[in-house]
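Researcher: Go.
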Amino acid sequence: MPIAITRVLKPEDWREKQLAALKAVGEKNYRKRITMPKKSPIAAGIAAEEKWAEAIRKAIERGARKIGLAATTDEEWLSYATNIGAGRLVEGVVKREPEVKKFVDTFQPMLLDHLSKIDPMSTVTLSDRIAKAVANIEGLAALRGAYKKK
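Model: Structure:
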């Protein structure tokens, strides 16, 4: 059987791969990774107030959000996340399959368009490779969230 070079998966294959991997190892990976957050989830929640300010302005003004977050600990958060979240991860994502489909179906053509501009760029010199890397990063950054606008 010949090798099929596939730069980007077809949307249906992408979705199937994502969901199959999640079903196979999602809970195991969740349980392992939840004990190793990159930063304190409680501190991050408090620090994110401005990002979510419009939606929760009243709670912030009353101080209820900060008081609520401060009333728990990282250990308590971990306990809830592990005991409640892990078993529900796969079920929750599978229920969101239509959203996964919408994302992949919308984003995949955008990614292919981006790659069609990046792939032909020269990589002969170090300057070429740097220019290609920068163009790729800038292009991917421009795509962030763009699928939501379609």
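Model: Residues 99-150 form one domain.
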